[in-house]
Amino acid sequence: VKVLLQDMDLIRCKEDLLDDKQRLENLLAQTKVIDESRDAKLKELKELIKNKVENNLNLGNKKVILFSAFADTVKYLYENLHSWALSELKINSAMVTGGDANKTNLNGCKPDLGHILINFSPLSKKRDLIYPDSKGQIDLLICTDCISEGQNLQDCDYLVNYDIHWNPVRIVQRFGRIDRIGSVNDKIQLVNFFPNLELDTYIDLICRVKGRMQILDVSATGDDNIIEEPSVGYGDLDYRKRQLKQMQSKVL
């Protein structure tokens, strides 16, 4: 569609842009008052990690995998955990986001995916055969879902989901990194951080909106539903809701 500049309402357009700018500035100002010192979730996570390292599920195993769906969250957690973990718990850390921003504080370990994972899970990755002169290990791995499939990390016995992925199948895939044949661990544990906000309320709102859009489909032409893909059914969302509710009270 060709739009002629002389047909635009430049005054209204400028007002809208300035309003957007003001809203963004207000949002940024609100976020700046929240830092790591006021992050109760981060504090709870530190307690979990400290308790796990000091009270091993399996003798001598200090390893923890920490998953988040968001690369920014992984970077935030690494920045606030790697120095603390090294000084207080005497363990090395690494972060993997799937890009070129991987990091680790293990001396001699390259910050690429292969080297980080082989130093995190040296037994399952057979590090002694590939790098016989390697020393030290990574015990805290903070990562996104870029490694939630196809990786043998069963040296670890403790996995934490810092946020719940919208697709519960993804959580099963994450847990599959340590719940594998060949594990030397007698026990493994999964920990989920569920949001404080009532998830059911949010999902039910979506269900109601989608239901009303379907009523519009029936009463109109079927072309007015702008939020529902034809191939996605109402039952799929309801099924995921039931999956998430089961995960809060049942063992995988």
List keywords for this structure.
single chain, 252 residues, alpha/beta, 8 helices, 44% helix
Structure description:
By secondary structure, this protein is α/β, with parallel strands linked by helices. The protein has a six-stranded mixed sheet, sandwiched between helices. A hairpin with a 6-residue loop joins strand 2 and strand 3. Helix 2 crosses helix 3 and helix 7 packs antiparallel against helix 8. It is globular, with a radius of gyration of 23 Å. The mean pLDDT is 85.
Outline the secondary-structure elements.
Blueprint: H1 10-32, H2 40-54, E1 64-67, H3 71-89, E2 92-96, E3 103-104, H4 113-120, H5 127-130, E4 138-143, E5 158-161, H6 168-175, E6 189-192, H7 199-219, H8 234-247
Parallel strand pairs: 1-4, 1-5, 2-4, 5-6
Antiparallel strand pairs: 2-3
Helix pairs in contact: 2-3, 7-8
Low-confidence stretches: none
- How many helical elements? 8
Radius of gyration: 23 Å
How much β-strand is present in the residues?
5-15%
Count every beta strand, where a strand is a DSSP E run of 2 or more residues.
Answer: 6
Structural class, by secondary structure, is alpha/beta
The spatial strand order of the largest sheet comes to 3-2-4-1-5-6
What string gives the helices and strands in order?
HHEHEEHHEEHEHH
Mean pLDDT: 85
Global outline: globular
